[in-house]
């Protein structure tokens, strides 16, 4: 599995591609953060997503798989000691300030006749669960990251990346019974010049008439407090 990530906050792109067997699976997730409660219908500025393809994720009330539930991440019980906020209550998206929405445009491609639709739907459902759990955790863990400087965040990212790569390498070395697919290291860039060199189009640079993105699209609006 090859993963590439471009960080051009408040706009980011994550791409995943499987290469170890045909057909290849491609997943692309675009993210844009805005200080609102998810009411921007054309957040990416190129083409509005059809209403039937938009999912509004509520980190308080939307169900998650039982295996991912933790009482410490239940936002109906969560309280931040540093910020004096929480727990969340019904209607929090209308009343909470400040508030930020993480808009996601998720696209995937699995081009196998007879399996494409079901497989792409399966991928979308799993990504939705991952995003919902991740944004619940982002709020529940507020006291762990609140107050960090940008330098602190970059150092934290570097440490996590090293730990992840080390764990994957150790797993591959210990499992000699069967070969495992290789995992690439992720990379992060934060300036437009680097993005242009990589051939990545940001929202400001994108041209929808020449888009080569996969066909199946769903936009997810996830609104952490």
Automatic annotation (TrEMBL):
Segments of this protein annotated with the region Disordered: 156-225
SUPFAM superfamilies assigned to the protein according to its UniProt record, in alphabetical order: Bet v1-like
GO cellular component: cytoplasm
Compositional bias per record (Polar residues), positions renumbered to this chain: 161-177, 207-225
Residues annotated as domain Phosphatidylinositol transfer protein N-terminal: 1-162
Annotated coiled-coil segments of the chain: none
GO molecular function, one term: phosphatidylinositol binding
PANTHER family membership: CYTOPLASMIC PHOSPHATIDYLINOSITOL TRANSFER PROTEIN 1 ISOFORM X1 (PTHR10658:SF83), PHOSPHATIDYLINOSITOL TRANSFER PROTEIN (PTHR10658)
Protein name per the record: Phosphatidylinositol transfer protein cytoplasmic 1b
């Amino acid at each position: 599995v090859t993963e590439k990530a471009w960080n051009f906050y408040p706009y980011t792109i994550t791409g995943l591609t499987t290469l170890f067997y045909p057909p290849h699976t491609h997943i692309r997730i675009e993210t844009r953060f805005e200080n609102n409660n998810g009411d921007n219908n054309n957040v990416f500025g190129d083409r509005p997503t059809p209403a039937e393809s938009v999912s509004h994720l509520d980190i308080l009330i939307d169900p998650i798989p039982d295996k991912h539930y933790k009482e410490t991440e239940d936002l109906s019980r969560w309280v931040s000691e540093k910020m004096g906020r929480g727990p969340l209550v019904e209607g929090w998206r209308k009343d909470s300030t400040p508030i930020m929405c993480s808009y996601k445009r998720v696209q995937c491609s699995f081009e196998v006749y007879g399996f494409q639709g079901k497989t792409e739907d399966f991928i979308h459902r799993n990504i939705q669960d991952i995003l919902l759990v991740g944004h619940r955790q982002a709020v529940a863990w507020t006291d762990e990251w609140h107050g960090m400087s940008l330098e602190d965040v970059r150092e934290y990212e570097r440490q996590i990346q090293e730990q992840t790569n080390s764990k994957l390498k150790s797993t591959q070395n210990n499992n000699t019974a069967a070969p495992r697919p290789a995992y690439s290291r992720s990379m992060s860039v934060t300036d437009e010049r680097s993005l242009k060199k990589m051939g990545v189009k940001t929202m400001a640079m994108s041209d929808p008439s020449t888009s080569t993105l996969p066909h199946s699209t769903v936009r997810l609006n996830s609104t952490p407090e």
